Amino acid sequence: MSEYKLHLLVCGGTSCRNLQSDTLAENLKTEIDKQGLTDVAQVVKTGCFGLCDKGTVVKVIPENIFYAHVKPEDAKDIVEEHIIKGRKVERLLYTDPDKKQIRIALRNCGIIDPENINEYIERNGYEALGKVLSEMTPEEAIKLLIDSGLRGRGGGGFPAGIKWDLTRKVESSIKFVVCNADEGDPGAFMDRSILEGDPHSVLEAMAINGYCTGSNYGLIYIRAEYPLAIERLKTAIKQAREYGFLGNNILGTGFSFDIEMRYGAGAFVCGEETALIHSMEGLRGEPTMKPPFPSVEGYLKKPTNVNNVETYANIPVIFSKGVKWFAKIGTEKSKGTKVFALAGKVNNVGLIEVPLGITLREVIFEIGGGIKGGKKFKAVQTGGPSGGCLTEKDLDTPIDYDNLIAAGSMMGSGGMIIMDEDDCMVDVAKFFLDFTVEESCGKCVPCRVGNKRLHELLNKITSGNGAKEDIDRLINLSNVIKDTSLCGLGQSSPNPVLSTIKNFRNEYDAHIDDKKCPAGVCKALMTYFIVEENCVGCTACARACPVGAISGERKEIHYIDPALCIKCGACEERCKFNAVIVK
Amino acid sequence: METVKLTVDNKKIEVPKGTTIYKAARKLGIDIPVLCYMDLADLNIEHKPGGCRICSVEVEGRRNLAPSCSTEVFDGMVVKTHSMRVLNARKTVMELILSDHPKDCLICPKSGNCDLQNLAIKLGIRETPYQEFSEMSTYRKDFSPSIIRDMDKCIMCRRCETMCNEFQTVGALSAVNRGFNSVVAPAFEMDLEDSPCTYCGQCVAVCPTGALTEVDHTNQLIEDLSNPAKTVIVQTAPAVRAALGEEFGMEPGTLVTGKMVTALRRLGFNYIFDTDFAADLTIMEEGTELLDRLNRHLKGDKDVKLPILTSCCPGWVNFFEQQFTDLLDVPSTARSPQQMFGAIAKTFFADRIKVAREDLVVVSIMPCLAKKYECQRDEFKVNGNPDVDYSISTRELAHLIKRANMDLNNMPEEDFDQPLGESSGAGVIFGATGGVIEAAVRTAYEIYTKKKLDRVDFKQLRGMEGIRHANVDFNGLEVNIGIAHGLGNARKLLEDVRNGISQFHAIEIMACPGGCIGGGGQPLHHGNLSILQKRMEAIYREDAGKPIRKSHENPYIIKLYEEFLGKPMSEKAHHLLHTHYIDKSKKIIYMK
Amino acid sequence: MSRIKVELRKDQIDKIKEICRSFNNNEGELINVLHKVQGEFGYLPAEVQEVIAQELDISVAKVYGVVTFYSFFTMIPKGKHPISICTGTACYVRGAEKVLEEFKKELEIEVGETSANGKFSINCLRCVGACGLAPVVMVGDKTYGRVAPEMVKDILGEYESQ
């Protein structure tokens, strides 16, 4: 990509594509052609930039100028102003606050054209594979990975090198290397972004993994809901085969390795490695007991090494830049960076990649730009649906695997949902439980029935029927579910309950003792009032009420009978004088 | 062998590597409660899905509890099986199971014989804390001719799924849906009757709760016995006498033939007959058919179907009618002993006692649930009136005897009635795997060679091995015999037949482990297969004690042919004692 | 799952068989087969599952067990314009629930159902990865971002005449 003076990188991630980034790219090309600048500037459709609520994002390099909220019709301005006149288009300008970010896993996302292997190669792609294959024994390569301290980015945080070593040590003529791309945490989409923006980094790492563990077969298990990522992976695999990075006798070293795709079908539990393996075998995605670990007995009962996308994306750089470089980033026990998906009530929603050890405060208030609408920060949920809710007091805790667990949450795959004063924490716990109830595979009792009962207990509380002892029941039940469930899903599913009880006990008490929802979320606990000063007696509310709960003569103050009110909110919607309020 | 040392409840033990905590604890005499776990070691099935979590124990250094049934021991492991943390977890998990289980134990058919009930007692469950606000998973009740599925009571132990798929390879059941709604069911949650179910009843035999039970005819029987207008006669299958005593606390393997006869007489049956008589009749027909096919084969007849397959097991008949429809002309056409008995009872015997067919009720006591379906088949009805009116299982009979305030333990012994109560030892051994073919060999040998057997015991045909084969020398003619019990084993032999590579002349197949002694209607063995072994020994003991050991020497059989049937495979015999098979595969795949 | 009876034409059966063959009739490929077949038929009625079971030589119960395990597979035909509402966390905290309620109210159907005229069906999905646009609704392939309950009528209106 170096022969051009300017490169216009147009985000081709799922969010931006939904905002017609394809049309924008086309328009830019047309404009460039029209102006005769074909040799000067090039339009590149890239993977996700991670600035999803700023879409469509266009980055101009080498100047590193970001344009945000670019619409297809802005193409003309960008070409005429920026390229021809050399002036920035002020109204679209966006300053990327990524000063604290370090991009390792996302190093190529938003920079290269993911459908062009040459761009990956230009950025030292497949250099690590060549180096490992020609200069290192599998043992040396694994030792290097162990020394780097890289831990699995899928949630468990198990040291990747040690996992590889386990598979390597098992004697078997057939072994498998699996990439877990069944990203299921709602709100987390880093794996999708990597696959869409930099698919070759994953392929390269899988091939290295194959060499190290003694495997010739790779499988990528990917969600069927990610059509773009699937397409780009397919293209990447094809190109890698053409270039000899996959297939027989890679780079003339005698090592052969190829990759196939397998598709998920909408089951969160398949992110668990044994469930994933069963799913790949055409079975119900139910987890089984470990041991035997997949590294000993996995896909088709053969030794299988499973890592997730983000873990793989880290690996080629570690080999090309070296352990020392990598190990300098992060904390003592958690090396490198982690990609988080910031979502919820934060100003800058999107993907970020930060060094481990950064504090939640830096992430939320500096990178995330603080809370939307100037509201008050209340909690942050890390670790996806089975993580925990952390509060103000945890904001200065450095983020790493162990600190998050100590604080009652976990790293998970990197979802980070920010909540403000308008969120009811009992309701939030209920929301997450709703998810686990729906996604429980049903195999073991504590997860199948226990989570359902947790959900019902929470429902009891949010509907105003909670009793004092329900809190103890929630706690005991949560602990037993964690203690006895078969797989990671059940072992962590009560975390939202336990962490919200621990950190927001007062909200639970308010629901139970005062029958009030302090955040005003739980419908059953709300009461609709008419503010006497504002009511003009127009009767609109009374006419809107479907159950006749509102009484009052014309031009007189109206009254809502709480015994009849079904809390549908029709009166509030209808009142033009802000006379109906809900508390 | 590599061994591992560990400590369980402060006791040290050394066990082979790969042993589970549960088994190591058992060696120490420590009893860890289990629920979904099922060890059918002799069938090579150890069902340990780790689903119920009741057997969870504390392992030092491990963050969470470990299911002892499926956690392997390691060197230096320290286990606590009954710590307070464990008891709390077990209690809570049990409360969860019960929160999704009906509480109608009073009228549940499994009451008193229910693993879940026993466990609730053991774990001291005294309340159901979620009841007032919790949803239960509910399903449509499914009534088939043999088995009732009441999935509200399913606890997802999935033992039935293992039996149906791994052991029987029938594939009628699978876990379906996900999460709280998951349940074991036939495809599309259709009725069992429309599924490939063979009614072998092995799912019922292993179900720990009342989710899978047999269709109970006891109340119908009581009604008929109390109706003076009806003549009620009963036939009892060979395997029943070797197991019924267990329901009265007797040692497995106790023979209760005489006591059972007395009990039946006291219940009010007009005649107490023996299915063993009909088994002898079966041998006459099936043995003749075998010889006929063999002779034709030896004469070079290319159309003759060999091996001949036995046809007394209705579960097995259902299996090939569903899944091996290309082989429908291979099995013997001989009806099962139950149906031969019914056909003779409602013709020959009804005439003799001058009772109209409609007023004669023929009841069978069977170790089997498929028999309940078999006697309802249209082929075995005359003008809508069935040859055998209904069949009750060994378990149902035991309950009925108890209901009538009788105890088999102090029951005197009496004899069957005649003429349909006399049998040879050959009829008795029908109850165990290999028995039918041994009985057939005893008769076929003597008819073929025209010589008397010196020794009637063909020990090479006996045993618990799933698939067995043996050669019997018919005076120079080597007859190759195959035996399979369990439909999964049967499938293997059948695939060979289908592919034309079977080396056998005759194959005996029984759907259930051990043959009828392990039938789906027998007292529950709860996975303890040594019980089956003892029942088998009892069957052979009964055979050995009989004065007549060969079917064709049964004087009442000889007389029946003389007076009524003519000779084996005669037209009359054909009409009453043989059947045809139906292609039921369309029932499953209804597009072609 | 409710049961809709379907008569398969010969060419449809052949198509299913062809798909199974393209995966070497390997039972391990069941999920891939189901994906392909659902792509072809839009849903997986019982009759289709029976053909698949026969081709892969596995029990129909097993196929059904897999179909009902994965939420991606459906036995009910979707509407002409399938509406998918993202109920991922980001969308939830930004009001996806209210949007969902509005669709349900407008179309008078529940999640997983298809409207009587076969035009619309509603289902929920977990995170389409467009969290920046939360709450997100998809109608067919078209994505609507930052949807508010008030927009529901207009969105449906776009498809009224189609």
Which range best describes the helical content of chain C: under 10%, 10-25%, 25-40%, 40-55%, 55-70% or over 70%? Answer: 40-55%
Beta strands of chain A, count: 18
What separation lies between the terminal Cα atoms of chain C?
29 Å
Name the overall outline of chain C.
elongated
CATH top level class name of the largest domain in chain C: Alpha Beta
Provide the CATH superfamily of the largest domain in chain C. Answer: Glutaredoxin
Number of helices of chain C: 7
Q: What is the spatial order of strands in the main beta sheet of chain C?
A: 2-1-3-4
Question: What is the CA-CA span between the terminal residues of chain A?
Answer: 60 Å
Average predicted local confidence, pLDDT of chain A: 91
Structural class of chain C: alpha+beta
Cα-atom radius of gyration of chain C = 18 Å
Number of strands of chain C: 4
Major beta sheet, strand line-up of chain A: 2-1-3-4-5
Biggest chain contact: A-C, 53 and 36 residues
CATH class membership of the largest domain in chain A: Alpha Beta
Describe this protein's structure:
Chain A is of the alpha/beta class and 583 residues long. Chain A folds into 5 domains: 6-96, 3-Layer(aba) Sandwich (Glutaredoxin); 117-326, 3-Layer(aba) Sandwich (Rossmann fold); 337-420, Ubiquitin-like (UB roll), CATH 3.10.20.600; 425-513, de novo design (two linked rop proteins) (Up-down Bundle), CATH 1.20.1440.230; 527-582, 2-Layer Sandwich (Alpha-Beta Plaits), CATH 3.30.70. In chain A, the strands form 5 sheets. A 5-stranded mixed sheet of chain A has the order 2-1-3-4-5, with helices on one face. In chain A, strands 11-10-14-12-13 form a 5-stranded mixed sheet. In chain A, α18 runs antiparallel to α20. By secondary structure, chain B is an alpha/beta fold. Among the domains of chain B are: 3-122, Ubiquitin-like (UB roll) (Roll), CATH 3.10.20; 280-335 and 424-556 and 580-585, Fe-only Hydrogenase (Larger Subunit), Chain L, domain 3 (3-Layer(aba) Sandwich). Chain B has 19 helices and 22 strands. The longest helix of chain B has 24 residues, at 275-298. The radius of gyration of chain B is 25 Å and the shape is globular. Chain C has 162 residues and is of the alpha+beta class. Chain C has a 4-stranded mixed sheet, with helices on one face. In chain C, a hairpin with a 2-residue loop joins β3 and β4. In chain C, α1 packs across α3 and α3 crosses α4. Chain A binds chain C through residues 13-15, 18-19, 51-55, 184-189, 192-193, 224-226, 262-268, 279-286, 300, 341, 343-345, 349-350, 381, 385, 415, 417, 419, 423, 431-432, 435, 441, and chain C through 26-32, 34-35, 65-66, 69-73, 87-90, 92-94, 125-134, 136, 143, 145.
